[in-house]
Amino acid sequence: MPGDATLGAVLRELREARGLTMTTVACQARCVLSLLSCVESGKRTLQPWLAQELDRIYATGSVVASLARASGGTSEENPASGMPARDVFVVVLPQGGVAMPLSRRETLTALSCGMVAGGLHGEFQRALDGIQPTGDVLQYLHDAFHGFKETARVLPPCQLIDGMTGNVAILDGLRRRASDGYRNRYGRLQAHYAESLSWLSEEAGDLPSAMWWLDRASNWAQAAGWTSMTAFTFMRRSMIVMSFSGDGLQAVDQARPVLEMPQASPRMKGMAAKQVAAGYALASNRDESRRALDAAMDWLAQPVREDDAVLSQLHVVNDDLLAVYQTTCDVYLGYGARVVPMLEPRLESLAGSSFRRATITRAKLARAYANAGQPEDACRVAWETLDAIERIDSQSACSELRRTVPVLSRWHGRSDVQEVVRRLG
Questions:
Q1: Please, which of 72, 254, 305, 346 could form a disulfide with 265 given CB 3.0 to 4.6 Å?
Q2: Which residues share a beta bridge with 101?
Q3: 133 HSE (CA, 13 A, CB side)
């Protein structure tokens, strides 16, 4: 049966990132080389047994197995429960790879209220009783988290959310039974998963879920004494405001409390100041944006703390990303000619680290070209961005691209402008 070419490309990236040849992986997975080659090229379906072997070889927890299920699709009804398949997803338990169905409604209710919420979730909790919340299990779930983060750079959120939600449920059940020495570590990882699920929900255009998961991340971080994550959730709210409403001043209000937190690290305050700068730029306040951006650069130049290093975006601050921060403000303020030569050459390096981030940056480049009075180039880049958005599903990139439309409307008579506006609509 034909497979999934996108999933195959992800598997190839996972293998190459670990410096493994196809021959080595085929030998360790106890399969013929031609089967692995066909799976990576999308010519054959990834079977569950091979997915579990690849998870073991790549140390990705249950990520590959989850992606295989998401790629394979589901039936309309779960025969065991009678529930619609859209409400039932499968989670792989640690220590043995046992797969269990979970009701999404029961799981989210349990995570919200802190209690067992129904039939399938009750069975799930009883299965968890046989798993000890040890360091090995925690490492398994850490490995899975990083595997999900790797694949989130190139895959649509819908293929990742169920697998990550299942791991949050596992963490929640094990955290309650963990010893004092492990309980906070399980809670921190649970908060980390929740923050990433908020981001994926945002990218999928699901505002209620994005806010729901962000609240869970904040609550679990506070319970685990993780002040850096608690502060980071304020910045995530600012990012969500910019993505969904484009209200610059409200984005400033959401990020500013971090600057007043005595426990917030310099890197955290730098990220908050960056958000303040972008918010003021969206509100067309150039002076305040410049002041905030200068403060952000000063904060971000300071050494990273241990807690910062594990938070998304905080450990990858480099010259490319700093240039994106600066040019983002310039784009929002209406500059173009000076932005394009700074932004365009960085697309390739950004794509090498994250296709998703490169797509968001490409959307800003389209606006820069429009600001510079180059509608043909703006439409070309916008079209490339729209193609990429169809591949990865990015609300952030859509929001950036829609900000280009009012500028492009100056050339509303052009057919290429009309096509871009129509496709965005």
A1: 305
A2: 90
A3: 21
Domain assignment present for 371: no
Task: Check whether residue 219 and residue 93 sit in a common domain.
Answer: yes
Q: Within this chain, do residues 143 and 30 fall inside the same structural domain, yes or no?
A: no
Strands (E), 361-414: none
Task: Please write the tens of the pLDDT for every residue from 248-279.
Answer: 999 999 999 999 998 888 888 999 999 999 99
Whether 102 contacts 91, CB under 8 Å:
yes
What is d(CA 67, CA 412) in angstroms, rounded to the nearest whole number?
A: 42
DSSP alpha helices (H): ranges in 207-301? 207-223, 227-244, 248-259, 266-282, 286-300
303 and 181 housed in the same domain: no
Composition of the chain by helix, strand, coil, percent to 5: 70, 5, 25
* Boundary of a domain, candidates 223, 256, 285: 223
Residue with tokens 């169905």: 101
**pTM here?**
0.90
Residue type present at position 145: F
Q: How far apart are CA 207 and CA 210, in angstroms?
A: 5
Length, in residues, of the chain: 425
